[in-house]
């Protein structure tokens, strides 16, 4: 009787050990599969980030923040570019506050009755600016040249402009 109990206990122990082994192996295999898929996803995301960084670099190529020669030009004249560049942009945005129908720099009149406003400004270098404008329905772009006077105030000259036709 005692030997049968030990035999049943031994068989039960072996079954529990086999169950634990199979269960642990399945869990480990699942974790390894998950880790492998996460590593693949991480590698794919790293490639995507690299492509996006390259694209971002290309898109920002014509930008005063990336143009050291333009920054050096202003610094050689004694300007702090961290203050001057935002001041130049604000000078253009301040032109959005005007009276009447004619914008001070945009050579078009609103076709919708709304005011024309400058939305986005990109300072290309120490001489050129590109900006877009809209009246809410019609859109266009302007190309400006500018100079900064001794007081740090930018004076803008309109060089080129166009408005997209409404389709």
Keywords for this structure?
49% helix, 167 residues, 3 helices, single chain, alpha+beta
Count of helix runs: 3
Based on CA atoms alone, the radius of gyration comes out at 34 Å
Low-confidence stretches: none
Distance between the termini: 97 Å
Order of helices and strands: HHHEEEE
How many strand elements? 4
The chain-level mean pLDDT equals 91
Structural class: alpha+beta
Written account of the structure:
The protein has 167 residues and is of the alpha+beta class. Helices cover 49% and strands 20% of the residues. It is built from 3 helices and 4 strands. It has helices spanning 2-59, 68-76, 81-94, and strands spanning 117-123, 128-134, 139-148, 154-163. A 4-stranded antiparallel sheet has the order 1-2-3-4. A hairpin with a 4-residue loop joins β1 and β2 (128-134). The N and C termini lie far apart (97 Å). The model has no long low-confidence stretch (mean pLDDT 91).
Topology:
Elements: H1 2-59, H2 68-76, H3 81-94, E1 117-123, E2 128-134, E3 139-148, E4 154-163
Antiparallel strand pairs: 1-2, 2-3, 3-4
Outline of the structure:
With 167 residues, this protein is α+β, with helices and mostly antiparallel strands. 49% of the residues lie in helices and 20% in strands.
């Amino acid at each position: 009787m005692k030997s049968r109990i030990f035999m049943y206990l031994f068989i039960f122990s072996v079954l529990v050990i086999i169950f634990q082994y199979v269960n642990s192996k399945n869990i480990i295999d699942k974790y390894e599969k998950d880790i492998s898929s996460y590593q693949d996803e991480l590698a794919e995301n790293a490639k995507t980030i690299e492509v996006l960084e390259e694209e971002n670099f290309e898109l920002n190529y014509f930008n005063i923040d990336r143009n050291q020669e333009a920054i050096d030009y202003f610094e050689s004249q004694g300007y702090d570019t961290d203050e001057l560049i935002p001041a130049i942009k604000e000078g253009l945005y301040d032109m959005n506050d005007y009276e009447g129908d004619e914008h001070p720099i945009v050579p078009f009149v609103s076709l919708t009755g709304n005011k024309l406003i400058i939305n986005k400004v990109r300072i290309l270098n120490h001489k050129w600016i590109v900006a877009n404008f809209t009246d809410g329905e019609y859109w266009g772009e302007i190309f400006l040249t500018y100079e900064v006077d001794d007081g740090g105030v930018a004076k803008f000259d309109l060089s080129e402009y166009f408005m997209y036709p409404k389709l």
